[in-house]
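We give the entry.
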Amino acid sequence: MIRPLHIFLFLLIAIIWGFNFAVAKIGLQQLPPIMMMALRWTLVGLLLAPFVKPPHGRWRPVLLVSFTLGFLHFAMMFTGLKDVDAATAAIAIQLQVPFAALLAAIFFKDKLGWRRALGMMVAFVGVAIIAGEPRLVGQYVPLALVIAAACIWSVANIQIKMMGEIDGMTLNAWVGVFAAPQLALASFVLEDGQGAALAAADWRALGAVVYQALAVVIVGYGGWFWLLRRYTVNQVMPFMLLVPGFGVLSGVLVLNEPLTPALIGGGLLTVLGVAIITVIRPKLVAPAADRV
């Protein structure tokens, strides 16, 4: 039985992660996406690294995770998020779960089974329904970047599982330390006007960066890993399924995005597909769960 106070904490984490889609969109209105990620991971590294143990003997795998998760995933995700609505991104990024199930079958010889295959198909059909909306015409490249980011997340998930047991906050801290310079270099090469954008940024843009570092990583991940040590994965996974719903809600309430029938139907199908996968093999996604 989950204690009422812990239920509240689960819900708080789901709300924090879900509403980050809208918060991030606000920041992206003023800051280049890769530069914004460089700032986020710099702040995470500064806040966490002094208080966690170095990952002795695991420097190489942590560095590799910093490249796939910290650099590739977030660079793709936020570049796509800049030009696609928050609600669509909140649903599309859930494809990281079927991607993870597929990679687990390949790398860990984990039997896929017809139920998980069905869940994967349902999830992809849900995103396809959303992508077919007329309002997304011209946004296919940004949407493809979000889906590619979901795939990269699943690769990072496999890397983390191959590392064995590692404290979540330690991993976040050192991913931040290593990913920040990678993102800064990529921003220097691929983006323009970073200095002017930072100088002109108001409290909303800077607040978005702080929200991601403090709320999403430290409060969200800190609470998530603390709860994972106290409850079974089967008990905590249903709360993860609330995140895309709060992500859609954030777009509607904060950014006045339209709540269309296709978005509702496609979103429900995607969440249903993810639910089928996580109920059958919940440990595929829980330890490395990433919420943008």
About this structure: Residues 203-228 form the longest helix (26 residues).
